[in-house]
Amino acid sequence: MMIKSTTRVARAVLCHMGPRYFSTTALHGCVASDVQAIRGVFGGTTTFFHGNLAQSSEKVLVGCMRLLAVGGARKASTLALGDKQQEEEKKVQGGETGGAAAAGGGNNNKGIVSYWGVEPAKITKEDGSEWRWNCFKPWETYKADLSIDLKKHHAPVTFLDKVAYWTVKSLRFPTDIFFQRRYGCRAMMLETVAAVPGMVGGMLLHCKSLRQFEHSGGWIKALLEEAENERMHLMTFMEVSQPRWYERALVFTVQGVFFNAYFLTYLASPKLAHRIVGYLEEEAIHSYTEFLKELDKGTIENVPAPAIAIDYWRMPPNSTLRDVVTVVRADEAHHCDVNHFASDIHYQGHELKEAPAPIGYH
Ligand SMILES: [Fe+2]
Ligand SMILES: [Fe+2]
């Protein structure tokens, strides 16, 4: 008896939850029989309790079922929509706004039904073809400035500079041992770390701006731009090198440690934090230079550039991995300048907000 009743309740719940996830059919038919089912079970099981308690439990549960029904209807059903809206949804589901499927955050053919009016506008490239990336838009793309001086180096003079310099140098040994000459994998893994400081610095400056009722001089945006740019490096290298399970585990651990260490360092001394990033970027330039040497020697295959890179850096369609590494290295040189500059501002006794931030410097 008990098993039978439980089965009826499970069926009733499925009847309500099902439409939420699988169907757009009407819900009304379920309600009356479900309430009966619940009554059946609670009529049997609640004899252990006083009558009032049983009745109120029943009311609460029926209320919950109604809420689920309404929630399900809101999320899944098209019954409440007019014919015109249903037509529009069919068009979306048919892929009218979907466009070509693309890896790494591109559109897919499955339209997502929404009546909130936030469907993205159809964006096209300069040549009129459809823009296929959701993760960045055409106005965020740029041509890398390859003329930047890659040999610039900030000589460590002060105590804090030396701390920053030797911290970065000491981090290089385990990295060299772990990756050896697997530069593709190395680049991908290091980008998972490189994208953290900009986000942490930007977040802390954002909070400071709120706390102290003051402008940031554009530095929040500049640092968040850097974080986003580093993340795009990662999204690009992901296309040519897939992380193994133990590398994913390593990223997980390193991110936990590095995020917190950098957060505390930035709180204690922003000039040290930016100097560390400046030296990290110098190391990144060195790593990418070695990567290019391996590509030139032929030990790493110079495969065609991933589509995401061609669109992000506005590269010619026949670009190769070598071209990608070259523009990424130029980006690192720009990050290097920005972070050493930020550290210098602090060294000269000023705050970042006093110097206009190099937004869009790449
Ligand atoms: Fe990077
Ligand atoms: Fe960088």
TrEMBL record:
Main subcellular location: mitochondrion
Keywords recorded for this protein, A-Z: Electron transport, Iron, Membrane, Metal-binding, Mitochondrion, Mitochondrion inner membrane, Oxidoreductase, Respiratory chain, Transit peptide, Transmembrane, Transmembrane helix, Transport
Cofactors required: Fe cation
UniProt superkingdom: Eukaryota
Cellular component GO terms, alphabetical: mitochondrial inner membrane; respiratory chain complex
UniProt-listed CDD domains: AOX
The keyword Oxidoreductase is assigned to this record: yes
Gene3D superfamilies in UniProt: Alternative oxidase
Gly residues composition-biased segments: 95-105
Cofactor binding note from Swiss-Prot or TrEMBL: Binds 2 iron ions per subunit.
Keyword Transferase included in the entry's annotation: no
Basic and acidic residues bias spans: 84-93
Subcellular location: Mitochondrion inner membrane
GO molecular function, one term: superoxide-generating NADPH oxidase activity
InterPro entries: AOX, AOX_sf
Membrane topology: Multi-pass membrane protein
Enzyme class: oxidoreductase
Residue ranges, annotated region (Disordered): 81-105
Reaction(s) catalysed (UniProt annotation): 2 a ubiquinol + O2 = 2 a ubiquinone + 2 H2O
EC number: 1.10.3.11
Similarity comment: Belongs to the alternative oxidase family.
Subunit structure: Homodimer; disulfide-linked.
PANTHER family, A to Z: ALTERNATIVE OXIDASE
Name the UniProt record assigns to this protein: Ubiquinol oxidase
Source organism (scientific name): Olea europaea subsp. europaea
